[in-house]
Amino acid sequence: MQTPVLYDYWRSSASYRVRIALNLAGVEYTPVVVDLLSKAHKGAEHLKRNPQGLVPALEIDGLMLTQSLAIIEYIIETRGVSLLPDDAAGRARVRALAHSIAMDIHPVCNLSVVAHVLELAGGDDAMRVAWMRKFISQGLEAFEKYLDHPSTGVYCHGDRPGLADICLIPQIYNAERWGADISGFTRIQAIRAACDQIPGFINAHPDKANN
Q1: pTM of the model
Q2: Where in the sequence of the chain do the CATH 3.40.30.10 domains occur?
Q3: 50: which of 25, 71, 187, 189 is 20 to 30 A away, CA to CA?
Q4: Which of 63, 133, 64, 143 lies closest to 102 in space, CA to CA?
Q5: CATH 1.20.1050.10 region(s) of the chain?
Q6: What CATH code would you report for 88-202?
Q7: DSSP letter at 3?
Q8: Intervals of the chain under pLDDT 70
């Protein structure tokens, strides 16, 4: 069987999610860098993989998969890794947590979106930083409140890492990158500390992916 190929960029939080999931599933893959700074994601070669011109894209099982959460659910369904709860209510909760980051915080903090806003508003780097801090902090504040729930354990849901944690850890990386103060979010910080002990999370970190 051909080794899967992950087309990603080290700092992309969507790519970071997929790297974590592949690691947790024990799936070996070949990384191929799509350099966002040089706009390689908008080149003809990558647009054949993903017409949206986004990363990541995962070539696996004769397929070219896009969209990080769809990729992760494919990994769950085909590689026997348990990243979602067994019960319907639990799966709904975990997906809601994951979506609150991947579908609410992430899109408004996407660099292409922010760049267009700045162009329209005539903003500068200070405005970019303020924008990122506002929406990341606001989103994670709500996430912290979601965690005030009996199903929260060592991780976002129970005592094993799953889809919600896979989305949370890259967003914490982004928060720190942009200087958002999330130090007071004690539940988030506890989960982060637990994930920081797991090789699958450690080895997916952008600092390692960029080596």
Answers
A1: 0.94
A2: 5-82+205-209
A3: 25
A4: 143
A5: 88-202
A6: 1.20.1050.10
A7: P
A8: 1, 211
Q: What is the pLDDT of residue 43?
A: 87
Tell me how far apart the alpha carbons of residues 31 and 206 are, in angstroms, rounded to a whole number: 13
Query: Which DSSP helix (H) or strand (E) runs through 6?
Result: strand 5-8
Architecture of domain 5-82+205-209: 3-Layer(aba) Sandwich (3.40)
Tell me if 178 sits within 8 A of 108, measured CB to CB: no
Name residue, tokens 């539940």: 187
pLDDT recorded at residue 117: 84
One-letter amino acid at 127 equals M
Token readout for 2 is: 């051909």
Q: From 58, 88, 87, 86, select the one nearest 74 (Cα to Cα).
A: 58
**Residues contacting residue 195 through CB under 8 Å, at least 6 positions apart:** 155, 161, 165, 168, 169, 201
Which pLDDT score, from 0 to 100, does residue 115 have? 83
Instruction: Identify the residue whose tokens are 């209510």.
Output: 89
C-alpha 32/C-alpha 18 separation (Å) is: 13
**Distance between CA 206 and CA 53 in Å, rounded?**
20
β partners of residue 66: 57
